[in-house]
Write a structure and sequence with these properties.
mainly beta, Rossmann fold, four-stranded mixed sheet, metal ion binding, G_ENGB_dom, GTP-binding, nucleotide-binding, 50S ribosome-binding GTPase
Length: 77
C-alpha cells in the first residue's frame, strides 16, 4: 500500500471509484495502527501516543489494485 492523498476538507477527497474501507472511531483508538498492521507497513499511516494526531482524511491505495483504497479518518470524542 502507498499514500494516495491527505485531504483536509471533504471536497478535496478523490472521486469515488472502486472499493473503500474506512477506519472510524474514537481518538487514539488504534485506527492508524490497525492500517499499518493490515498492510504490513509500520510507517504507512502516521501514529502517535497523543490523541488527535490524524487531522486529515488519509487515503491509501494498492498499486496492484488501484480500485481499492483504505481510508484513515480523524478520531472523534
Amino acid at each position: 500500500a502507498q499514500s494516495l492523498i491527505s485531504a483536509p476538507r471533504r471536497r478535496q477527497c478523490p472521486t469515488d471509484e472502486g472499493t473503500e474501507v474506512a477506519f472510524a472511531g474514537r481518538s487514539n483508538a488504534g485506527k492508524s495502527s490497525a492500517i499499518n498492521t493490515l498492510t504490513g507497513n509500520g510507517k504507512l499511516a502516521r501514529t502517535s501516543k497523543t490523541p488527535g494526531r490524524t487531522q486529515f482524511i488519509n487515503f491509501f491505495n494498492f498499486p496492484a489494485a488501484p480500485d481499492q483504497r483504505i481510508v484513515d479518518l480523524p478520531g472523534y470524542g
